[in-house]
């Protein structure tokens, strides 16, 4: 085997892993790698900030199911990846991050742009490496991709001293990975699966709670089969949206702090909760001792660490959701469950998602309702974090897996725009719509350059209310309307977009909403829509922090309290 440089070994290894795109930003310690990329048959996308590189890799991964790849140089380049790696870790997204490092003989001397990125990222990566010998490079890359995509997926970082990527070694990419200490469980325990089936068949008020693990395991078809065969209603976590069609008669939409009233009522009244690929986050459970108080709980998850971590369960099943559901479904009997389903339908009629429509103001919910009407074909919705994120989760009809991409566990403002870049490049034939708030949009606004330079036909919708809306909402409801540092003075987003050669329009009137959305969706290139929305519009329903799921606020009872 011919000797290759470390940089060339890395490129050849990426090709073996079917990597077709890399997001990155060059710097001193990765110049040899970028020199090899110059001639490599891998598309490199130059972002404008390293955080955008990892968010783009994240969006690419979530939307395609593949491993996302990003590169940053040493020191500040590496540390700029930290938030994005933490985001991917919290949401179980397979990303590989390559970082440059000082030469091995200078490590530990505080040399220029030397930083212990392994130590920094240890709590926020599934695993990380520093390659100290070139003979280990190919093996490390093979292991990294295997670890990132298997079991519970997650990010892996590989730190590359510059002398390692400059030196040469015989290239031999391993066919197999041998990691005796890492043996994920996929199949699930047969007796536990059979026990779960018995409880499902005997339940009068069963409910499925589906999370991001369903999407990770590509188990959406199996989820639909289970719900239809058992006639079991389904609710989703934020990360689980798209795993079950939201227009289906059995769908209850999202559960939790900003979930639908009927989903939260169903959690509180069910006698059996079938939790699949969820981690029982506090935004879902509300007050833990009041969560699903009447239910026997089945928990299916590939990560044994999640079992009994936040919620005590009765029937734990560790394994891959797709495998377990395929084994479970044959045992399931079709039950009418007329009383339970009728109760849920009554809740849906009595407690629909609602808002004060107003007459002239552009309500964000109205924008999303129009977007639902106009978008006729498959599309990918990417959001930033804040009020707009929750409104999107409530009002948009996600019908297919990987059609909704958002930051869940970490709640990372600035995620939306770069993640939409990754989603668009991973799905060039699908419309990608980025929904952002005026605050989050400005955290990575420079990525308009990346969109423009690559002529990506992303449609950007900004909910512009001149405030950090979600923080303001909490200040209004729980801090006596003391609006401390939440009002923001925004630039002219239309002019900024135009400066990047991106078409943009500002919409101030309700009558222009539909026309603007249609224009954007029909436009062949990128386009930005800046919607002026009311500053005081809040997201409802809302479960206050520390309350149970049944203690929901909505705009009607908040108005009543205000009037008293």
Question: How would you explain this protein's 3D organization?
Answer:
This protein has 564 residues and is an alpha/beta fold. The chain folds into three domains: 3-170, 3-Layer(aba) Sandwich (Rossmann fold); 190-350, 3-Layer(aba) Sandwich (Rossmann fold); 364-539, Thiamin diphosphate (ThDP)-binding fold, Pyr/PP domains (Rossmann fold, 3-Layer(aba) Sandwich). The chain has 24 helices and 20 strands. It has a six-stranded parallel β-sheet, sandwiched between helices. A six-stranded parallel β-sheet has the order 11-10-9-12-13-14, with helices on both faces. Helix 1 (6-16) packs across helix 2 (31-37), helix 1 packs parallel to helix 7 and helix 3 packs across helix 18 (416-426).
What are the salient characteristics of this protein?
564 residues; alpha/beta; Rossmann fold; 3 domains; six-stranded parallel beta sheet; 24 helices
Summary, kept brief:
The chain has three domains: 3-170, Thiamin diphosphate (ThDP)-binding fold, Pyr/PP domains (Rossmann fold); 190-350, TPP-binding domain (Rossmann fold); 364-539, 3-Layer(aba) Sandwich (Rossmann fold).
């Amino acid at each position: 085997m011919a000797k290759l440089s470390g940089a060339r070994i890395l490129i050849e290894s990426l090709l073996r892993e079917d990597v077709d795109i890399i997001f990155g930003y060059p710097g001193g310690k990765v110049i040899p790698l970028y020199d090899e990329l110059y001639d490599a048959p891998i598309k490199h996308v130059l972002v404008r900030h390293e955080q955008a590189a990892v968010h783009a890799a994240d969006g690419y991964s979530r939307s395609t199911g593949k491993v996302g790849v990003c590169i940053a140089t040493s020191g500040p380049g590496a540390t700029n990846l930290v938030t994005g790696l933490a985001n991917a870790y919290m949401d179980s997204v397979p990303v590989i991050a390559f970082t440059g490092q000082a030469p091995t003989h200078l490590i530990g001397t505080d040399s220029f742009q030397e930083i212990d990125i392994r130590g920094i990222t240890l709590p926020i990566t599934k695993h990380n490496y520093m390659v100290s010998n070139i003979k280990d490079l190919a093996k490390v890359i093979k292991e990294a991709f295997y670890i990132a995509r298997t079991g519970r997926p997650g990010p892996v970082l590989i730190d590359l001293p510059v002398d390692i990527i400059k030196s040469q070694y015989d290239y031999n990419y391993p066919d197999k990975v041998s990691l005796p200490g890492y043996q994920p469980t996929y199949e699930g325990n047969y007796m536990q699966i059979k026990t779960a089936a018995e409880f499902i068949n005997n339940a009068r008020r069963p409910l499925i709670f589906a999370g991001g693990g369903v999407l990770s395991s590509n188990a959406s078809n199996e989820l639909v089969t289970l719900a239809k065969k058992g006639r079991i209603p389904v609710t989703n976590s934020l990360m689980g949206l798209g795993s079950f069609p939201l227009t289906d008669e059995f769908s209850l939409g999202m559960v939790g702090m900003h979930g639908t009233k009927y989903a939260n009522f169903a959690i509180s009244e069910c006698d059996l909760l079938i939790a699949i690929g969820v981690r029982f986050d506090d935004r879902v459970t509300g007050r833990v001792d009041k969560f699903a108080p009447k239910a026997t709980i089945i928990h299916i998850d590939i990560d044994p660490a999640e079992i009994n971590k936040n919620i005590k369960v009765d029937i734990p099943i560790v394994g891959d959701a797709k495998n377990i559901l395929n084994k479970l479904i044959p045992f399931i009997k079709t039950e009418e469950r007329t009383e339970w389903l009728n109760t849920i339908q009554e809740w849906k009629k009595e407690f629909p998602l609602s808002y004060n429509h107003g007459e002239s103001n552009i309500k964000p919910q109205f924008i999303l309702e129009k977007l639902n009407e106009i978008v006729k074909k498959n599309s990918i919705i990417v959001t930033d974090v804040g009020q707009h994120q929750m409104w999107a989760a409530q009002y948009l009809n996600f019908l297919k897996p990987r059609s909704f991409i958002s930051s869940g566990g970490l709640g990372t403002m600035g995620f939306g725009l770069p993640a939409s870049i990754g989603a668009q490049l991973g799905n060039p034939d699908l419309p990608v719509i980025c929904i952002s708030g005026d605050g989050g949009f400005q955290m990575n606004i420079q990525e308009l350059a990346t969109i423009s330079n690559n002529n990506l036909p992303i449609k950007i919708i900004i909910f512009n209310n001149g405030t950090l809306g979600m923080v303001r909402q909490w200040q209004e409801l729980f801090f006596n309307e003391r609006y401390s540092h939440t009002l923001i003075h925004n630039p002219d987003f239309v002019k900024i977009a135009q400066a990047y050669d991106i078409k943009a329009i500002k919409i101030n009137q309700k009558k222009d909403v539909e026309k603007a959305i249609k224009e954007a969706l029909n436009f062949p290139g990128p386009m930005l829509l800046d919607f002026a929305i009311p500053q005081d519009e809040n997201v409802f329903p809302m479960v206050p922090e520390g309350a149970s799921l049944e203690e929901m606020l909505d705009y009607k009872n908040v108005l009543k309290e205000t009037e008293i």
